Amino acid sequence: MEIESVSSAIGAHVRGVDLSKPLETEELEALRVAFAQYGVLFFREQTLTPESQICFAETWGRIIINRFFTPVEGFPQVAEVRKEPHQSFNVGGGWHTDHSYDVEPALGSILCAKNLPALGGDTLFAGMSAAYDALSDGLKKTLSGLNALHSSRHVFGDQADMPADIRERFGNAEKATQDTIHPVVIAHPLSGRKTLYVNPGFTRHFEGWTIAESRPLLDYLYEHASNEAFTYRFRWEPGSVVFWDNRATWHYAVNDYQGQSRLMHRITLDGEAVSA
Ligand code: OGA
Ligand code: MN
């Protein structure tokens, strides 16, 4: 197995491993180390079925069944991330990290390409430990005392600003009641690195601050963290599988393939409470 880092902030390509088979102890150990170090692992030429994707996921932990996504038929553990030619809006088309609104946010997500547009539909990733490291000591000090509220309501709830053509892909709007407080800077559970833990998708405001008061500083952090220096753009191919750490990274699904379809299978893994 070969593991090759792709940028200084985030990501590594992994070659010479077949995820559809049970992993050798040494392979799993090498993947664990790489996952903690790089935040996102990219695999090519895989042949995962829903069954083998579930087996691979279960070697990392417990699967979370997402409340809002339509599952793959017969596999409640596997969410469909689908865009049809008639839909203009895509899932994940802005910087975010999955499930930060949960009290114990998801460890990671495993996304497997099933049907890709001829061109386009790349996914961007951003590394939040590198983004944190590049802040000034002054701002680091200010952030160290702050917590922020994360919520699912404005994204998946009844009041969410979601076009009708995508609403049909999501269910359980009435279950979008997760609000939780996390530190703005966490000690990453695997790497121990200080990591920026706010995201444009789900973070609402700093604890004890209004939304209006929070906006300028959050916007500053979002502008900073999405800088090219901390990001990597992944081009999917048939057989690509990506496994990202939701505590260490953000991701962004580029919506540049109007009129074509794209289907991915996602499994999300249970995490743990995060702390400063
Ligand atoms: C997701 C997501 C990105 C993509 O599945 O959580 O944001 O490129 N997907 O489909
Ligand atoms: Mn996502």
Can you offer a commentary on this structure?
Strands 1, 2, 3, 4, 5, 6, 7, 15 and 17 form a nine-stranded mixed sheet that branches. Strands 14-8-16 form a three-stranded antiparallel sheet. It is an alpha+beta fold. The protein is built from seven helices and 17 strands. It has helices at 25-38, 50-58, 128-133, 137-144, 153-156, 164-167, 211-225; strands at residues 2-5, 12-15, 40-43, 63-64, 71-72, 75-83, 108-115, 123-127, 147-151, 179-183, 185-187, 194-196, 203-206, 231-234, 241-245, 249-253, 262-269. Strand 5 and strand 6 (75-83) form a beta hairpin.
* C-alpha end-to-end distance: 34 Å
CATH class: Alpha Beta
Instruction: Give the tally of β-strands.
Output: 17
Bin the helical content: 10-25%
For the record, the count of structural domains works out to 1
Number of helices: 7
Strand content: 25-35%
- Average pLDDT figure: 95
Biggest pleated sheet: 9 strands, mixed
The small molecules bound here are:
N-oxalylglycine, manganese (II) ion
Q: Which radius of gyration do the C-alpha atoms yield?
A: 18 Å
